[in-house]
Design goal:
Elements (H helix, E strand, L loop, with lengths): L12 E2 H10 L4 H8 L2 E3 L3 E4 L1 H10 L10 H12 L4 H9 L4 E2 L15 H10 L4 E3 L4 E3 L3 H13 L11
Antiparallel strand pairs: 1-3, 2-3, 4-6, 5-6
Helix pairs in contact: 4-7, 5-7
Length: about 170
């Protein structure tokens, strides 16, 4: 989400929620933070993906649970489309860098993606990227998402969409 406004506390688990869950279930909060933190909003601070946190709590294992979601299936297609150099931007993001994004032109419609900024904005909405509105940049938020981007980059088959990669 770009601007959750008054809904900031309800976008996901807060850091206090995750600390409490980790304590109750004898899990490392530091590992939970490394795997699932990375999103933040001014009013609440860190926000965690509740689905992944709960899977880790139930299974007692920190790992990526995004591959088990429908959004993960589309990531490869988005990367392979290589809108205005999106593939190179993803490689830079995987390297730990932030990349600029202009979110203003996005129509909130996956059928009318016109350029790299639209695609990056869509990835923000899907939770794949953390957005810094002050800096106008995106980054990969945590280990879980970094793994999903890495898998998707490896699975992109089109050498035409990503010249020089394969």
């Amino acid at each position: 989400m770009l601007e959750p406004g008054e809904f900031q506390p309800y976008v996901g688990f807060t850091e206090e929620d995750v600390k409490k869950l980790c304590a109750e279930h004898h899990l490392s909060f530091e590992e939970a933070k490394r795997w699932y933190d990375g999103y933040s909003f001014d009013a609440v601070g860190s926000v965690y993906n509740p689905y992944s946190v709960m899977k880790a709590v139930v299974l007692k294992k920190f790992r990526s649970y995004w591959r088990m979601s429908s959004a993960a299936d589309a990531l490869e297609d988005y990367i392979a489309a290589d809108y205005d150099g999106l593939f190179q931007a993803v490689l830079e993001l995987l390297g730990g860098f932030e990349t600029p994004v202009d979110t203003d032109g996005f129509n909130n419609d996956v059928q009318s993606i016109r350029n790299r900024d639209d695609m990056l904005t869509l990835l923000i909405h899907l939770g794949y990227l953390a957005y810094d509105g002050d800096a106008g940049t995106v980054r990969i938020p945590n280990e879980e998402i970094r793994i999903e981007f890495s898998k998707s980059v490896r699975e992109v088959k089109s050498s035409e969409a990503c010249p020089g990669f394969l």
